[in-house]
C-alpha cells in the first residue's frame, strides 16, 4: 500500500515538520519533536495524522502499513521506566518499534505558531475582528518572534485554502478585539460560529453574570485544549481590575475556574478538549503535502476522536 510512493529519509521528514512550526516555541513542560525512532528506519513512505495516538489509531496505522505517525498530543509525556504489555502507552511504544513506525508530536509548537491551531480556532470569528489587531495571551520568546518576522516577511507561513493567512502572531492563546463597524456579534451568534468551525452539534456555555445570549461580545480570548491557566493569567494581568474580555473559548476548564470567570463578566464556551484542536489536522495535512510532494502519502486518521461525547 505504501509502495506507490518514493518516500523520504526520516530526518528529512522531521526537518519539514519542524519547519511547519518551530518546536522551540513549545511550552517548557511539553514533550515535542521526534519521540519514537525505529533503529532500522529507512524511508518514510506513508504518514498518519492524528490528534491522539490511541490503540485504535495504532491499529489503523499498522493495518494501513504507515511508517510514521504525527500525533498532535505526545503519547510519551511522563517518564516511562519500561516498555512492556502492562499499560496501553507502553504497548503503543513497543508496537511502534516492532512495526518500524516513527512518532512525532508537535503539540504546543503548533498552538503557538502563526497560522497554527490557535489561529485555526480563531477563524471561527472571521470577519468580526481585524487580523492585524490580534495579540497572543502569552508572547513567544523575543528571538522566536524576530526570526518568524524575518522568515515570513511579516506574514503567516503558506497555508491551505482551509485557513486564511494570518499576520505573524506567535505565542500561546489569542485575544481578538471585535470590530465596532461590523454587525453586532452576540453571545448566541458566537456559539453558532464555534459549532460551525468545529463541526460540533453541541458545545457547553457558561453565561457571565448579568449577560444573556443577546449580549454583544466586544473582545474574545481563546486557547485550544485546556485554557484555564491562560485565562487566569489574562485576568490577573488586568491593571483596572476588570476583565479585558467578555468571552473565552477553549476545550475544557476546571469547574471553579468557570465560576470565577462568569462572576468576573466573562462568558465561557467549551468544546471538549480535542474538539478544539482536531480540525487543524486538515490544514496540517495540506501544508505537509505541499512540503513533501507526492513522495510521502499523507492520511488523516479515521478512528481518532474525542473520548467524550454528549448523549
Automatic annotation (TrEMBL):
Residues 156-165 have a biased composition (Low complexity). It comes from the Eukaryota. Signal peptide: none annotated. Keywords: Metal-binding. Pfam families: DUF34_NIF3 (PF01784). GO terms for cellular component: mitochondrion. The keyword Metal-binding applies. Residues 146-165 are annotated as: Disordered. A divalent metal cation binds at residues 73, 111, 273, 277. Belongs to the GTP cyclohydrolase I type 2/NIF3 family. This is NIF3-like protein 1. It comes from Apolygus lucorum (Small green plant bug).
Amino acid at each position: 500500500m505504501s509502495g506507490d510512493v518514493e518516500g523520504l529519509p526520516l530526518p528529512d521528514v522531521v526537518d519539514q515538520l519542524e519547519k511547519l512550526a518551530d518546536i522551540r516555541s513549545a511550552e517548557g513542560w511539553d514533550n515535542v519533536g521526534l519521540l519514537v525512532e525505529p533503529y532500522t528506519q529507512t524511508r518514510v513512505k506513508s504518514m498518519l495524522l492524528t490528534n491522539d495516538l490511541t490503540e485504535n489509531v495504532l491499529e489503523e496505522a499498522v493495518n494501513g502499513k504507515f511508517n510514521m505517525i504525527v500525533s498532535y498530543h505526545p503519547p510519551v509525556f511522563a517518564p516511562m521506566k519500561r516498555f512492556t504489555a502492562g499499560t496501553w502507552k507502553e504497548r503503543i511504544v513497543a508496537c511502534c518499534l516492532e512495526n518500524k513506525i516513527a512518532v512525532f508530536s508537535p503539540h504546543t509548537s503548533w498552538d503557538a505558531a502563526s497560522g497554527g491551531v490557535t489561529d485555526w480556532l480563531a477563524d471561527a470569528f472571521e470577519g468580526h475582528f481585524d487580523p492585524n489587531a490580534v495579540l497572543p495571551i502569552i508572547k513567544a520568546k523575543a528571538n522566536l518572534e524576530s526570526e518568524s518576522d524575518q522568515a515570513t516577511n511579516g506574514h503567516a507561513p503558506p497555508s491551505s485554502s482551509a485557513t486564511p493567512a494570518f499576520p505573524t502572531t506567535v505565542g500561546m492563546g489569542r485575544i481578538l478585539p471585535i470590530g465596532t463597524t461590523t454587525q453586532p456579534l452576540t453571545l448566541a451568534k458566537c456559539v453558532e460560529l464555534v459549532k460551525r468551525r468545529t463541526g460540533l452539534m453541541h458545545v457547553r456555555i457558561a453565561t457571565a453574570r448579568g449577560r444573556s445570549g443577546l449580549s454583544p461580545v466586544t473582545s474574545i480570548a481563546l486557547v485550544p485544549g485546556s485554557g484555564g491557566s491562560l485565562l487566569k493569567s489574562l485576568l490577573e494581568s488586568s491593571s483596572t481590575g476588570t476583565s479585558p474580555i467578555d468571552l473565552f473559548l477553549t476545550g475544557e476548564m476546571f469547574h471553579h475556574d468557570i465560576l470565577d470567570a462568569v462572576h468576573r463578566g466573562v462568558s465561557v464556551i467549551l468544546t471538549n478538549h480535542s474538539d478544539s484542536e482536531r480540525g487543524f489536522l486538515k490544514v496540517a495535512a495540506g501544508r505537509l503535502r505541499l512540503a513533501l510532494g507526492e513522495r510521502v502519502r499523507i492520511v488523516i486518521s479515521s478512528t481518532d476522536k474525542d473520548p467524550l461525547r454528549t448523549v
